[in-house]
Design a protein that fits this description.
Elements (H helix, E strand, L loop, with lengths): L1 E6 L8 H13 L12 E6 L14 E4 L3 H9 L3 E5 L3 H9 L3 E5 L13 E2 L4 E2 L9 H7 L5 H18 L4 E4 L2 H7 L4 E3 L21 E5 L8 H13 L5 E5 L5 H10 L6 E5 L3 H10 L2 E4 L9 H8 L4 E4 L2 H7 L4 E3 L4 H12 L2 H18 L2 H16 L1
Parallel strand pairs: 1-2, 1-4, 2-3, 4-5, 5-8, 8-9, 10-11, 10-13, 11-12, 13-14, 14-15
Antiparallel strand pairs: 6-7
Helix pairs in contact: 1-14, 2-3, 3-5, 4-5, 7-12, 10-13
């Protein structure tokens, strides 16, 4: 079967979409048909330039920044088209060519003009103005670039919904997202994780405990909220170290907040870490906190931390609560005081933290296996191709 993947962003760009797309594609090309030959002939199309990335290191073909005519030729030569996110051009050309099309939703682009389901510029969770028909709220929310850009984002949301309503399947990584987007042919397929052995040694018992955050330092990830919670814990006399792993546009303002709050001794920014250093940091962690304000459809950091056998404290976004199940702790989104209370309760009870970590590792193994994700996609392609 000739399979075409379209992902606007891909390596060397770093992010959840890039990681998942690469994992699915690499797994699919390893599958064998009844005669032992590869079942899928896969080509990946992306708009990301290669920079220093070696495409030859991948086990599938990559076509970067194709012209529209080349994109149409690739679509015409394929049996099934998989589009990571509702990208309008490949969606339109695939449907026009009467191809079997699958859209995998990595965001809220079909129900929110800014794709984050957040009210800007405050970063507050949106109650769903677009789907409720309160379109004036959408115009105001996205008015920063000007009224023309705001109306364009709004109109394109209708276009994406129209096109996705005509696809063979709409894949969502959580059932919660599937219920939210209200599209036909919803197929929930949880993200799969590359094998990673859980930590077998007990949580570090030496003081101070290490609270770890990993992610992009942008508004939606809620790091200012985490720092406010850290300040509350500090004022209460709690001893801890907060390790913030990642980089982004908010770094300077976050560092300034740390200085102004007198948290320099307990808060440490590491920037991005290479894989060995990252694993070393997680090995020192007592717990992982994921304080996102919105924009999350699954939560790779949540699932990967669970896989490591670490207790996770996350905001009560629908995606996080589904991924965590009963194996983690949640707090009210945007509530720094409640986050501080939950962090304190976990740090105060070593047995509870160890139990959470054990249950988290078990759930990650049972629910988020890489092979299960690849096989579920393959089964879907076979079905719609028939």
């Amino acid at each position: 079967m000739k399979l075409l993947f379209y992902s606007h962003f891909f390596a060397p760009s770093i992010g959840g979409v890039e990681t998942i797309v690469r994992s699915i594609a690499a797994g699919l090309v390893e599958l064998k048909g009844p005669g032992g030959a590869p079942e899928f002939d896969l080509t990946l199309v992306t708009q990301t330039p290669p920079a220093n990335f070696d495409d030859q290191s991948l086990n599938f073909r990559v076509v970067r920044q194709p012209s529209l005519s080349e994109l149409r030729r690739l679509i015409a030569a394929s049996d099934v088209i998989h589009i990571a996110g509702p990208a309008i051009s490949p969606l339109f050309f695939s449907l026009l060519a009467r191809k079997s099309v699958v859209v995998e939703h990595h965001g809220f682009q079909t129900i929110c003009p800014n794709g984050q389901l957040l009210i800007e510029p405050h970063g507050a969770p949106c109650p769903g103005h677009f789907m409720a028909g309160r379109h004036a709220e959408c115009w105001r929310c996205n008015s920063a670039p000007g009224w023309l850009a705001s109306r364009k984002l709004w109109l394109l949301t209708f276009v994406r919904r129209f096109l996705c309503q005509r696809t063979a399947a709409n894949i969502t990584p959580t059932r919660w997202l599937g219920e939210l987007v209200q599209l036909p042919h919803i197929t929930p397929i949880p993200h799969g994780l590359a094998p990673l052995a859980p930590r077998t040694s007990p949580l570090p018992s030496s003081a101070p405990p290490v609270i770890l955050f990993q992610g992009r330092l942008v508004t939606t990830k809620g790091v200012p909220l985490l720092l406010r919670a850290a300040r509350i814990l500090r004022e209460q006399g709690r001893s801890f170290t907060l390790l913030i792993i990642g980089d982004g546009s908010e770094l300077a303002s976050l560092q300034q907040f740390v200085r102004e709050s007198g948290l320099q001794e307990v808060v440490h920014f590491t920037g991005r870490l290479a894989a060995p250093e990252l694993e070393s940091a997680f090995a020192r962690a007592s717990l992982v906190v994921v304080p996102s304000l919105g924009g999350e459809v699954f939560g790779l950091v949540v699932a990967e931390s669970m896989q490591r056998g670490l207790p996770v404290v996350a905001s009560d976004l629908g995606a996080f609560t589904e991924v965590l199940g009963d194996s983690g702790m949640i707090f009210r989104t945007g509530d720094a005081k409640h986050l501080a209370e939950v962090l304190d309760s976990v740090l105060n009870d070593a047995h509870r933290a160890a139990d959470l970590g054990h249950r988290a590792a078990l759930r990650a193994h049972q629910c988020f296996a890489l092979t299960a994700m690849v096989q579920a996609h393959a089964a879907l392609y076979r079905r719609i191709a028939r």
